[in-house]
């Protein structure tokens, strides 16, 4: 009798693993974000909004993607916008659409 063969990863799982392995240079920001979920909202150290800015190509999109994934692990609802949302109504509309996609319509 042969031992069971290890479960093969799907292509999606392989690509995701490679993407995560390539995520470098923002571990501190990701750690701070994750630690925030352990703080009660009343704690003055608790943050309700995380803002990312910087030059092109420095990993902002990857960081936001990691934050959103971490937030999902904690059952949090997230939304993000980029420079294409150039007015308050645009930002609010984008947030409302993203909340609705996560099952939390406004």
What secondary-structure arrangement, pairings included, does this model have?
Blueprint: H1 11-21, H2 27-36, H3 60-73, H4 88-101
Helix pairs in contact: 2-3
Description:
One of its GO terms (molecular function) is ATP binding. InterPro entries: P-loop_NTPase. By secondary structure, this protein is mainly α. The chain folds into two domains: 11-75, no CATH class; 79-106, no CATH class. Helix content is 46%, strand content 0%. The chain contains four helices and no strands. It has helices at residues 11-21, 27-36, 60-73, 88-101. Helix 2 runs parallel beside helix 3 (60-73). The longest helix is centred in the middle third of the chain and has 14 residues, at 60-73. The radius of gyration is 18 Å and the shape is extended.
Silhouette: extended
Number of strands: 0
Number of domains: 2
Structural class designation:
mainly alpha
- The share of residues in extended strands comes to under 5%
The proportion of residues forming helix, as a percent range, comes to 40-55%
* SS field, number of helical segments: 4
**Main beta sheet:** none
Q: What separation lies between the terminal Cα atoms?
A: 57 Å
Residue ranges: pLDDT <50 for 5 or more in a row?
A: none
- Rounded to an integer in angstroms, the radius of gyration calculated over CA atoms is 18 Å
